[in-house]
Amino acid sequence: MPYQAVILTVSGSCAAGTRTDTSGPAIRAMLENAGFAVQAMQTVPDEEGQISAAIVHACDILQADLVVTTGGTGLSARDVTPEATLAVLDREIRAIPVAMWVEGLKSTPRARLSRAVAGIRGHTLVLNVPGSEKAARENLGAVVATLDHALRMLAGGGH
Prior knowledge:
This protein has 159 residues and is of the alpha/beta class. It has helices spanning 12-16, 23-33, 48-61, 81-86, 95-105, 133-154, and strands at 4-10, 37-44, 66-70, 91-92, 118-121, 124-129. Strands 2-1-3-6-5-4 form a six-stranded mixed beta sheet, sandwiched between helices. It is globular, with a radius of gyration of 14 Å.
């Protein structure tokens, strides 16, 4: 059975219907190509409480193996995805964002400005990627090959 994934697009304008999300569908395609089943895609506004609640729902109720958020990882006052994520994680995984930053730096020095985080809630791996489609593809592409091993370990599969 394939791993179950949930994609959360964090964007006030997408949630309001004034902008079309392109990063969520791009992430979906990448995950499906990697063998994941995307069980849900949701758009939430840039509100810390709503982002946290959506992550908790995906982890605890939907029991997703992987939750990928896209958007809200930059420097603007509305970019609160990292804080919302950290608030609900049991443990942080610092090397995943580092791998994403290294890959992003190959394309742009602006990758240094990402505040993305990754970690574990229960048996779910949670990753933040940027909201731009190009950056989301690059960031997820930097770590997608390690997700299977990480999820096997979370499920008690060992090394």
